[in-house]
Amino acid sequence: MDRVAGPSGRGNGIIARQAAEERTGSGRTVPAAPCRDAGCGFPSNSTVSTFKELGIPSDLIQGLEELGIVTPTEVQEKAIPFLMEDGGDLIAQAQTGTGKTAAFGLPLLTKIDPKSKEIQGLVIAPTRELAKQIGKQLFRYTKYSAKVFVEVVSGGDKIDRQIEALKRPTQIVVATPGRLVELVNQKALSLGAVKHLILDEADEMLSMGFKKELAQIIGYTRDRRSTWLFSATFPDAIQLLIKDCMSGTPQRLTIDRSHVVNRDIDHRFAVCARGHGTVL
Asked: Is residue 41 scored above 60 in pLDDT?
C-alpha cells in the first residue's frame, strides 16, 4: 500500500488506492479485522485512560473502535498527551509491539492541515515492511476523518511510480532512509515544509548502516518544529543522533518491556555486498 487519502465520495473518511485490502474476492466490502500489529492499542496491565481522555478527537476514535482498539497501551498513554498538547521533541524507549504507531500516528494526524498540499509530516522507518505497515495504520485510523494523503516510499518498489505518485498532493510521507534520499536527489519531493519528523526504530536504522542517510534527512528538515524518536535501545550512536537532531531538553519516556502487547514480531536483515542488495 503506497497511497491513502480521504474519500471524496463520502465527504470525509479515507480512500486507499489499494482499497482491495478491505474487500473480498467478490468485491463485497467487509469490515476490517481487529488490528493486532505493532500500531494497535490493546490493553496493558497498567491503569489507563481512554483515548478521549488523552485528547484524541472523536472522528479518530471512531476509526480506532472499528479496528477493535479501545484501550491505550502504556506508550500511547504516556506519549499522546505530550504530543497533543506540546508537540515538542520526544525521546521514547519502547520495544516493537508496544503500540508505537498509534502513539505517534494519532497526534501527527491531528497536526496536519488537509487543505495544504505540502508535506507536513515525515515518518522514517528501517524497512519496507514497517513503512508499509505504518502507512496502512494511518489509513485505518483516519477512516472517518478529513482527507489526509499519505505516501509510502521504500526501497524494493519501482521508483518511477513513486515519483509519479508524489506529484499529487501529499501531507504525510512514510519512507525508508535510502529511498527517501534517492527521491530528494532526483527532486521528486521537497521536505522544506515538514513540521514533524518521526524516527521509528532508530537503533535498527543505525545498525543497518543508515547513519549518513539519517544525517541528510535531518538536514533536509532543518525548519521542522519537532522530532519524535522511538528506539528500543540507546547505544552511543543513538545519543549522538539525538544531539544532532534535537535541541534543548526533549521529553523522555521509557516503556517497561513487560508491556509489549505483540510478542510475535521478529526483525531480520542480511548484510550484502554493495550492488547485490536492494536500496531501502
From this structure: no
Q: How far apart, in Å, are the Cα atoms of 123 and each of 8, 77, 137, 150? A: 25, 20, 13, 10
The pTM assigned to this predicted structure is 0.78
Of 8, 55, 6, which Cα lies nearest the Cα of 172?
6
Sign of the Cα pseudo-torsion (78, 1, 183, 190, in order): negative
Q: Which residues of 139-160 are buried (b: 16+ CB within 10 A; e: fewer)?
A: bbbbbbbbbbbbbbbbbebeee
Tens of pLDDT, residues 179-221: 999 999 999 999 999 999 999 999 999 999 999 999 999 999 9
Residue 123 three-state SS: strand
Q: How confident is the model at residue 71 (pLDDT cuts 50, 70, 90)?
A: very high
Per the CB < 8 A criterion, the answer to whether 4 and 150 are in contact is yes
4 contacts 172 by C-beta, under 8 angstroms: no
Residues in the chain: 280
Q: How far is CA 45 from CA 48, 72, 95, 103, 259, in A?
A: 9, 11, 16, 17, 7
